[in-house]
Design goal:
The chain folds into six domains: 58 residues, Helix hairpin bin (Helix Hairpins); 227 residues, DNA ligase/mRNA capping enzyme (D-amino Acid Aminotransferase, Chain A, domain 1); 113 residues, Nucleic acid-binding proteins (OB fold (Dihydrolipoamide Acetyltransferase, E2P)), CATH 2.40.50.140; 73 residues, DNA polymerase, domain 1 (Orthogonal Bundle); 71 residues, DNA polymerase, domain 1, CATH 1.10.150.20; 68 residues, Rossmann fold, CATH 3.40.50. It starts with a helix and ends with a helix. Helix 1 packs antiparallel against helix 2. By secondary structure, the protein is α+β, with helices and mostly antiparallel strands. The strands form five sheets. Strands 12, 13, 14, 15, 16, 17 and 18 form a seven-stranded antiparallel beta sheet that branches. Strands 2-11-10-3-9 form a five-stranded mixed beta sheet. Strands 5-4-7-8 form a four-stranded antiparallel beta sheet. Bound molecules: zinc ion (ZN).
Length: 661
């Protein structure tokens, strides 16, 4: 029976490929559905033949996605941007000098404006799909990705190496227009742009809903330790041969002048494409050179994105407001008459700092040009002087903090920004620090509304981060009229945040200049908070990618006795200040496992540490309250004992699928 089921699966994989990749179906949709229905009914009848990569798994499920976070096997860098051909000339010179070679050749590709995704395949099977996340860790969206028909769950071809493959999930223009037509008909508000809709879709909780979205995925990078591919052009061919969708528009450019031709060609034709692009990606073609060039802390040195000129719009300046960040930095923000740019409504634009206001020679209530590129924050790039009224007054940068304390702002030497240095008392800074602390990339405490935090700060219930962990349900309900269920959920989220790893805790403290990557480097190097607190300037700057500014900021932070006390308090509450004892999740809390037999996929040691790091425990004897994970060559006694006790048996695959590990 298993053989027959496998036959049906392979048949469906094959016809799926013909339909969605080759665009050359050999059977009708009805025939396809008949085979699929037969498979589904057999799989229901024989659950022991469950296969996470079966075509039946594409239909989605109403079970909620939990989007667990996993490390990327290979870090997912973003690309450096360039906005002019001169930028590219400079980039080319820089890498030629770096490599000591001239006349480099390149691979040019269209830069899709969608959501990046990283898939891993083992033994030809899709194992995991992660979002970019912070580049180091991403969210597991495998169940949602499986619903995209053009992504193979099983390769058509047997290959003997595992690989990671990267692509961009998009919604094509035609499909997007169709979606909006239906929404309009149903009286729903229309989606703003394909990119945001694609991005929202892959994070939907319910994969049945994702299935309904017309998502497509195009692939452009394959990484493996074991293939013998020499350049990006070959790599793209391999991607296609393995059965993935690729854009056929990539071009091998034998020198930088060919690159310019490619850019000019697509700059004229980009609006004719059925999908949105926001530029061109230029990669050094030779993979050996790519390796030699390596990476900065943010970008690969061997690739760059060329961004097409962005759309600009004219609108009226209504007011200038001042925002105070969590570190005290004060940013002037232009409040604008709302205007549509690239399908997004723009109401505010950053003015960056005092110098920028003076450079623009900004006057009150005048008409300004606003641009919004790929960046999240729109900016004012110029002024329509012809429309300026003769009595308009220049905008003066306010050197007083907008907070109730109204401290005088201070400009730090070497920085363009003004700061409110009353860090401990300035309310917007306190609020900003709490917002940062609870944010997803920090302690990830979901369900904490900004108003709630503000109210708690105002009544002095929140002064230090540790106060968060002392909040009670009664308090939350009474001060905020919060529903009991929401209060309970918030308290659970607070409790769960205690298991965040050390580098996230360090990042959460909001020490100036200590971002995510810096926190990770510090943690990997110093291992414990004590080592870091006791380190001197020279020890700190000896760490990879840590400079003077960061070291000074750390020393200043740890010199403050209140900060040291707060860290002790957080440590006492159980937050992790130590690189060891780190738990990945609590998924297996209170569950006990017995591992029996050997596994092709994983060593027993690794399986054991996987269980432990997700909160489970491992035992050696089969008793009533355990779950048995069975591999090959399991002792018959263990099986019969398990059967007589009626306990659950799982293969490795089912174990992974069941707990979404
Ligand atoms: Zn202030």
């Amino acid at each position: 029976m298993l053989k027959y089921i496998e036959e049906l699966r392979n048949k469906l994989h094959h016809h799926n490929y013909l339909y969605y990749i080759k665009d050359a179906p050999e059977i009708s949709d009805i025939e396809f559905d008949q085979i699929l229905n037969e498979l589904v009914s057999l799989e229901n009848k024989y659950p022991q033949y469950f296969d996470a990569n079966s075509p039946s798994q594409r239909v989605g499920s109403s079970l909620s996605n939990s989007f667990k976070t996993f490390n990327h096997k290979y870090r997912m860098y973003s690309l450096e941007n360039s906005y002019s051909l001169e930028d590219l000339v400079k980039w080319n010179e820089r890498i030629e000098k770096n490599l000591g070679k001239n006349n480099l050749s390149f691979s040019c590709e269209l830069k899709l404006d969608g959501v990046s995704i990283s898939l891993s395949y083992e033994k030809g099977l899709l194992k995991k799909a992660l979002t970019r996340g912070d580049g180091i860790q991403g969210d597991d969206v495998t169940e949602n990705i499986k619903t995209i028909n053009s992504i193979p769950l099983k390769l058509n071809r047997a290959i003997d190496y595992d690989f990671t493959i990267r692509g961009e999930v998009i919604i094509e223009k035609k499909d997007f227009a169709e979606m909006n037509k239906i929404r309009e008909r149903n009286g729903d508000t229309k989606y703003m742009n394909p990119r945001n809709t694609a991005s929202g879709s892959i994070k939907l909780i319910n994969s049945l809903e994702v299935k309904k979205r017309p998502l497509k995925c195009y692939f452009f990078q394959i990484i493996s330790e074991n293939y013998n591919i020499l350049n990006q052009t070959e790599a793209l061919n391999l991607v296609e041969e393995l059965g993935f969708k690729t854009l056929k528009t990539n071009r091998f450019c034998k020198n930088i002048n060919d690159v310019f031709d490619y850019i000019n060609y697509w700059d004229k034709r980009k609006n004719d494409l059925n999908f949105e692009i926001d530029g061109i990606v230029i990669k050094v073609n030779n993979l050996g050179y790519q390796k030699d060039l390596g990476y900065t802390s943010k970008f690969p040195r061997w690739a760059i994105a060329y961004k097409f000129a962005t759309e600009r719009a004219e609108t009226k300046l209504i007011d200038v407001e001042y925002q105070v960040g969590r570190t005290g930095v004060v940013t002037p923000v232009a409040v604008l008459e709302p205007v549509l740019i690239n399908g997004t409504k723009v109401k505010r634009a950053s003015l960056h700092n005092k110098d920028q206001i003076e450079k623009l020679n900004l006057h009150q209530n005048e008409y300004v040009f606003v641009e919004k590129g790929g960046e999240i924050i729109p900016k004012i790039v110029g002024i329509n002087k012809e429309k300026r009224s003769s009595d308009a007054k220049p905008v003066m940068f306010s050197e007083i903090c907008p907070c109730p304390i109204q401290s005088n702002l201070v400009k730090i030497a070497g920085e363009a920004q003004h700061y409110c240095v009353n860090h401990k008392k300035c309310p917007p800074q306190i609020l900003g620090r709490f917002k940062h602390f609870i944010s997803r990339k920090a302690m990830n405490i979901d369900g904490f509304g900004i108003e709630t935090i503000e109210r708690l700060i105002n009544i002095n219930e929140l002064k230090n981060f540790s106060d968060i962990y002392a909040l009670s349900k009664q308090k939350l309900i009474s001060i905020d009229r919060m529903a009991e269920k929401s209060a309970q959920n918030l308290l659970t989220a607070i409790k769960n945040s205690i298991s965040q790893p050390f580098h996230k805790v360090l990042f959460s403290l909001g020490i100036r200049h200590v971002g995510e990557t810096v926190a990770l480097n510090l943690v990997n190097n110093f291992k414990t908070i004590e080592n870091l607190m006791n380190a001197d300037f020279d020890q700190i700057i000896s760490v990879n990618e840590i400079g003077d500014k960061i070291a000074e900021s750390l020393i200043e932070y740890f010199d403050d006795v209140e900060n040291r006390e707060e860290i002790q308090q957080l440590k006492y509450l159980g937050l992790c200040f130590n690189i060891r004892n780190e738990n990945k999740s609590n998924t297996l809390n209170n569950l006990k496992f017995v591992i029996s037999g050997t596994f092709q996929e994983i060593s027993r040691e690794d399986l054991k540490s996987m269980i432990l790091s997700n909160g489970g425990s491992v035992s050696s004897s089969v008793t009533k309250n355990i779950i048995l994970i069975i591999g090959e060559n399991v002792g018959p006694k263990k099986i019969s004992k398990a059967d007589s006790l009626g306990i659950e048996k799982l293969t490795y695959d089912r174990f992974i699928a069941k707990f979404k590990l």
